[in-house]
């Protein structure tokens, strides 16, 4: 596992999401209202739209264009029109930074 720092933890408020580049991948980093940080592929599998521009609701992120929501823990879509999941990456918050591993 190769965790890389991607973002100062203070830059990600509860209920927010941001897009970061990790190696050659666009990744959506989202923090739930209860403070848990998650990392998933940034592009919606339905319309190739940035999920980081959507809304974090509970433990999902909702695509702003067509309304598909994805579970931040599993990557599975929870509402149509998306039916394909997004990739989920290991991430952690430590020492004031958010780290992500896209190598799997």
Q: Could you characterize the architecture of this molecule?
A:
With 104 residues, this protein is an all-beta fold. Helix content is 0%, strand content 43%. It has no helices and nine strands. It has strands spanning 4-8, 16-22, 25-31, 37-41, 55-57, 60-62, 69-71, 88-94, 97-101. The strands form two sheets. It has a six-stranded antiparallel sheet with strand order 1-9-8-4-3-2, with no helix packed on it. A three-stranded antiparallel sheet has the order 5-6-7, with no helix packed on it. Strand 3 (25-31) and strand 4 (37-41) form a beta hairpin. It is globular and about 40 Å long. The mean pLDDT is 96.
List the SSEs and their pairings.
Layout: E1 4-8, E2 16-22, E3 25-31, E4 37-41, E5 55-57, E6 60-62, E7 69-71, E8 88-94, E9 97-101
Antiparallel strand pairs: 1-9, 2-3, 3-4, 4-8, 5-6, 6-7, 8-9
- The fraction of residues assigned to DSSP E strands is 35-45%
Number of helices: 0
**Helix/strand class:** mainly beta
Helix content: under 10%
Rounded to an integer, what's the Rg over CA atoms?
Answer: 12 Å
Mean pLDDT: 96
In whole angstroms, the N-to-C terminal distance is 7 Å
Shape: globular
| Low-confidence parts | none
